[in-house]
Give the backbone structure.
Amino acid sequence: MTSTRIRMTPDDRREQLLGLGVHLLATRSLDELSIDVLAEEAGISRGLLYHYFGNKQDFHRAVVRRAADELIEVTAPSSDEDPLQQLMLSLGAYVDYVTENYQGYVSLVRAASTDESLREIYEQARATLTDRLFDVAGREQLAALGITDSPATRLMVRGWSALTEEVVISWVRTPHGVSRDELLQRLAQGLVALVQEPAG
Amino acid sequence: MTSTRIRMTPDDRREQLLGLGVHLLATRSLDELSIDVLAEEAGISRGLLYHYFGNKQDFHRAVVRRAADELIEVTAPSSDEDPLQQLMLSLGAYVDYVTENYQGYVSLVRAASTDESLREIYEQARATLTDRLFDVAGREQLAALGITDSPATRLMVRGWSALTEEVVISWVRTPHGVSRDELLQRLAQGLVALVQEPAG
C-alpha cells in the first residue's frame, strides 16, 4: 500500500485497469502488453493485478474484449442520417480507431488467427459490426440503398469487412496520397456495389 | 532400402515428395502434415526425409511454396479472352483450388498470421496474384475495363484480394444456396466497382 493510492471499489479499480490496458495496447502489440507493464504504469503490485485478472492470457482477453466494445461503440450508426452518410460516418470512426490504436489492433488481428479465445472475441466483434447492417434499423437503411437481405448479400458483406480491415490497415501504414475522404468513399461505394444483384 | 523403391535422382525424388506433400496438405492442416505422415505415405524412412527437407519447418515451407506456385499457375490468365471473361476464368480456378485444397489452404492462411517465414511465402503469392493485374498485359486489360493504375487502385485491389479469400473460404464451407456462377459474378463485379474513381 502506498499513500498515493486512491481508495476505489474493486469493480472501479478493475475498470480503471482495463481502461489503462486498452490505452497501453494502442501503441504496443499484445506481446508487449504484460502484467509487468501494466503494474508499472498503474503504480500497483503485480500481485494485485494477478488478483484482478488471473493470468496474462485472461488479462489479454479482458483488455481485448473491452477494446472491441469500444470499437463497436464508437462506430455505432446514429439513426438520423441518410444511409450512405451514416455508413461514411461509421467507416470514418473505424478508420480513426485503427489510426489511433494501430499497434494493438494489428497485433490483435494476427493473434486472433491462432489464439482460439481471442479469435472468438475478434469474430464476435466483427459479426456485431457487420450484422447491425441487417438489424431492423439497418435493414430499412439497406432497403433505401436498393439492397435486400439474402445469404449472398451477407456473404459479400462478410467479405467487405475483410476488405475494409485490410485496406484500412494498409492505408494507415502508408496512405500513398489517398485522402481519408477518398478512402471512405471508395469503401462505401464498394459495399453498395458488392451487394447488388449480379448484372449478368 | 526396400526392393520396391524406384531409383530416382535426388532432384526427382525431392520433387516427387513435394508433390506428395502438397497432395496430403489438401485434406489436412499444416499441423497434421508431419514428416511421419509423409514417410508413411511415401514408403520411405524418416531419416531420408530429414535428409531432403532438413526439419519439419523447412519441410512445411517447401510444401507451402510449392502449393503457392501451383495456385499461381492454375489461376494464370490466358491472353485470348476479353478482360472480364479472363477475370472470371481466373477466379473460377481460384475457387476450385480452394474447394479441392480446403483444409490445407485454411490452415495456411491461419499459420501465415504468426509464422514469419510462412507469412512471407503467403504474402508473396498473394502479391503475385494481384500484381499481375498491373503488368503490361494486365494493364491493357484494366484499361479496357476503364480502370487506371494508381495507388488508390492498388490499395483497393489488395483489399479485394482479402475479400475474395474470405468470401471463397466462407462459401466453400457453406454455399448458402449461392451458385458458383453467381459467386464469380459478384466477385468480378465487386472488383470493377471497387477500382472505379469515387463518384462524389
